[in-house]
């Protein structure tokens, strides 16, 4: 599976009447559209723009199309009014590509004029200069368009908040106004009593059928049937609420009553790329949903748990609610009762995320949202921990990391995805006004 494809609003521009190559704008426009489609983007192209009035009309058209990102293709010198009028009508992040095939077109000369105006107006942009198919320009567009896509997908996205935060976790408090103002998300508050009521409505035959098809597929199922059936019932209740409330993500407070009874349900929701966070962590739920949009794969969710000083690695894990798809193979999965409550059903396996892994944390501040990101290399876990352990090796001394995280003000849940997504997350934080920190161990 792959993530969502960014939807680009393409606008080719030229200033007419000054013998600077404006007659080539239409042909270059067609080249640019073909180039972006070949690169795999969903492209909505406006007519060629030769005036501020045409730029405004192009912006209105692209706003109606709900593009993720504007791509402004400067085919020659362009007045900054063209771009400010475009972005007045369509307020999406703007990627400016100065086409530099002919030096007489001087497209690069106008970029500081444009970007100075956009900066003053508080509009985010990225600027590159190069020929069509220039690899550096395309790489920067890859990062920028996906950050813009995350921003656009979040706007109006609905996240269920069932049972709120655990009574023992002060730092898990969420500020709904701040989440709305910064990310544009809608928080749907859901009493935990509604969840239990929905669970009672679920069909008994379907519950048993799902359980009998599921548990023989895993490597070990050392659980009671009654716990397995209850876990399926709770999954179906959560899934029903997602559909009824039209949710993109679902945060459920499992502490202190549900505990491992909901682990399988959380696991199954994340297998479907419905971001699902336990312990009432609304911020982790939002991040897990974003991972699904980026990669088309479920996200890892784990606590900062143990330092491996010999290998300069850190082990992250949660208690056993990881998506089954992250086990590599169903036969690697063990279903066991909770070690804390001796009931329920936990999903145990060593997380399979080879190569580079990016971890991200979102934390509520008194008047800000803090986005912290780290990057490591996956190594085999040696801890023997029975959750969903993921061990990552870092440059620098991992013994410094606890204090590094303390100074960054990170929370305890880290959301992981395979690959290096640091640049996309940095740009996303800039676009949304989040406080961004890249965290890594200190070096000698």
Describe the structure.
- With 444 residues, the chain is α/β, with parallel strands linked by helices.
- Strands 11-12-17-16-15-18 form a six-stranded antiparallel β-barrel. A five-stranded parallel beta sheet has the order 2-1-3-4-5, sandwiched between helices.
- Helices cover 36% and strands 23% of the residues.
Reported for the largest beta sheet, the result is: 6 strands, antiparallel, barrel
Radius of gyration over C-alpha positions, nearest whole angstrom: 24 Å
The percentage of residues in β strands lies in 15-25%
Structural class: alpha/beta
Distance N terminus to C terminus?
41 Å
Total strand count, please? Answer: 19
Average pLDDT over all residues: 96
Number of helices: 13
CATH topology of the largest domain: L-fucose Isomerase, Chain A, domain 3
List segments where confidence is low: pLDDT < 50 over at least 5 consecutive residues.
none
Shape verdict: elongated
Summarize the amount of helix as a percent range: 25-40%
Can you tell me the number of structural domains?
Answer: 2
**Largest sheet, order of strands side by side?**
11-12-17-16-15-18
Per CATH, the class of the largest domain reads: Alpha Beta
CATH architecture of the largest domain: Alpha-Beta Barrel
Question: What would a concise description of this structure say?
Answer:
The protein is of the alpha/beta class. The protein has helices spanning 25-38, 52-64, 80-89, 111-120, 135-154, 176-183, 192-201, 204-214, 225-245, 263-271, 282-295, 401-408, 422-432, and strands at 7-13, 42-45, 69-74, 94-98, 125-129, 158-162, 186-190, 220-222, 249-252, 275-277, 300-308, 313-317, 334-336, 346-348, 356-364, 369-379, 390-393, 413-418, 435-438.
């Amino acid at each position: 599976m792959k993530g969502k494809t960014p939807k680009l609003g393409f606008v080719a521009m030229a200033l007419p009447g000054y013998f600077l190559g404006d007659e080539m704008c239409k042909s270059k426009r067609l080249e640019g559209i073909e180039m972006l489609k070949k690169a795999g983007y969903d492209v909505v192209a406006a007519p060629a723009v030769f005036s501020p009035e045409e730029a405004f009309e192009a912006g209105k058209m692209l706003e109606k199309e709900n593009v993720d990102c504007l791509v402004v293709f400067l085919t020659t010198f362009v007045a900054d009014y063209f771009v400010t009028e475009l972005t007045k009508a369509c307020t999406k992040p703007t990627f400016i590509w100065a086409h530099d095939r002919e030096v007489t077109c001087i497209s690069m000369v106008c970029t500081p004029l444009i970007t100075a105006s956009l900066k003053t107006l508080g509009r985010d942009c990225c600027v590159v200069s190069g020929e069509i198919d220039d690899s550096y320009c395309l790489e920067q567009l890859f990062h920028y368009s996906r950050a813009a896509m995350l921003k656009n997908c979040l706007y109006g996205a609905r996240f269920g908040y069932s049972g709120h935060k655990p009574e023992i976790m002060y730092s898990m408090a969420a500020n709904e106004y701040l989440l709305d103002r910064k990310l544009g998300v809608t928080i749907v508050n859901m009493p935990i009593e509604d969840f239990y009521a929905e669970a009672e409505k679920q069909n008994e035959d379907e519950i048993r059928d799902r359980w009998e098809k599921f548990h023989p597929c895993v490597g070990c199922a050392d659980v009671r049937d009654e716990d397995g059936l209850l876990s399926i019932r709770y999954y179906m209740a959560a899934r029903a609420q997602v559909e009824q409330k039209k949710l993109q993500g679902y945060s459920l407070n499992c502490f202190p009553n549900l505990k491992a009874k909901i682990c399988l349900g959380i696991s199954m929701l994340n297998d479907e790329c419905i971001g699902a966070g336990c312990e009432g962590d609304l911020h982790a739920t939002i991040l897990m949903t974003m991972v699904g949009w980026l990669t088309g794969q479920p996200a890892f969710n784990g606590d900062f748990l143990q330092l491996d000083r010999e290998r300069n690695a850190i082990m992250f894990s949660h208690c056993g609610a990881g998506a089954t798809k992250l086990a590599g193979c169903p036969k690697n999965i063990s279903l066991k009762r909770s070690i804390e409550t001796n009931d329920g059903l936990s999903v145990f396996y060593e997380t399979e995320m080879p190569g580079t892994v990016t971890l991200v944390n979102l934390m509520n501040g008194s008047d800000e949202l803090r986005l912290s990101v780290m990057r490591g290399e996956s190594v085999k876990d040696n801890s023997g921990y029975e959750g969903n352990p993921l061990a990552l090796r870092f440059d620098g001394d991992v013994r410094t990391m606890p204090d590094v995280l303390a100074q960054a003000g990170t929370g305890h849940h880290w959301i992981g995805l395979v690959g290096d997504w640091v640049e996309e997350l940095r740009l996303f934080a800039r676009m949304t006004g989040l406080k961004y920190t890249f965290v890594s161990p200190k070096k000698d």
